[in-house]
């Protein structure tokens, strides 16, 4: 059992690294595409930017969050196979915790939670679909005969 816990923790660490690496790469591309001069290192944690479809910085934050979640979900599928949903939820909880620590307050902004929730759904759906497609012969299906 301790070996299984170690594998899970190692996979979780890999998923955290993948998530934030992908997030910062996507942020760099979005900052370049929208011609925003300064990349803020705290951008993945910024929930205080006023929502406006005319504010390019806000658009970069939203677009990069959604793209990072989708790409991370696909990469998680390659790493953890059918457990994408579990790692996606855990990574999102870690991201909320880190965001609260970095910004020194708990996010109570509705648009941030909506973007985070839609990103989580996209991460789970994209990752689970890819995992099912790639590993469908290895999936564990529950036996429902007893119900």
TrEMBL record:
- The residue ranges crossing the membrane are 12-36, 56-80, 87-106, 112-135
Instruction: Output the InterPro entries linked to this UniProt entry.
Output: Integral_membrane_SYS1-rel (IPR019185)
Record membrane topology: Multi-pass membrane protein
Q: Which domain of life is it from?
A: Eukaryota
Compartment(s) where it occurs, according to its Swiss-Prot or TrEMBL record? Membrane
Q: Which key words tag this protein in UniProt? A: Membrane, Transmembrane, Transmembrane helix
Can the keyword Membrane be found in this entry's annotation?
Answer: yes
Q: Name one GO cellular component term.
A: membrane
Read off the PANTHER family from this record.
Answer: SYS1, TRANSMEMBRANE PROTEIN 244
What is this protein identified as? Transmembrane protein 244
**Gene expressing this chain:** TMEM244
């Amino acid at each position: 059992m301790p070996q299984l816990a170690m594998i899970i923790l190692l996979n979780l660490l890999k998923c955290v690294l993948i998530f934030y690496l992908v997030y910062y790469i996507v942020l760099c591309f979005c900052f370049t595409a929208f011609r925003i001069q300064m990349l803020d290192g705290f951008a993945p944690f910024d929930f205080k930017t006023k929502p406006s479809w005319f504010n390019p910085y806000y658009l970069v934050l939203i677009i990069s969050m959604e793209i990072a979640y989708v790409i991370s979900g696909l990469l998680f599928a390659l790493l953890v196979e059918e457990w994408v949903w579990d790692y996606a939820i855990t990574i999102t909880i870690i991201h909320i915790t880190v965001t609260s620590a970095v910004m020194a307050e708990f996010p109570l902004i509705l648009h941030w939670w909506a973007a985070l929730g839609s990103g989580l759904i996209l991460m789970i759906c994209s990752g689970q679909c890819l995992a099912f497609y790639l590993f469908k012969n290895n999936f564990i299906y529950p036996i429902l005969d007893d119900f």
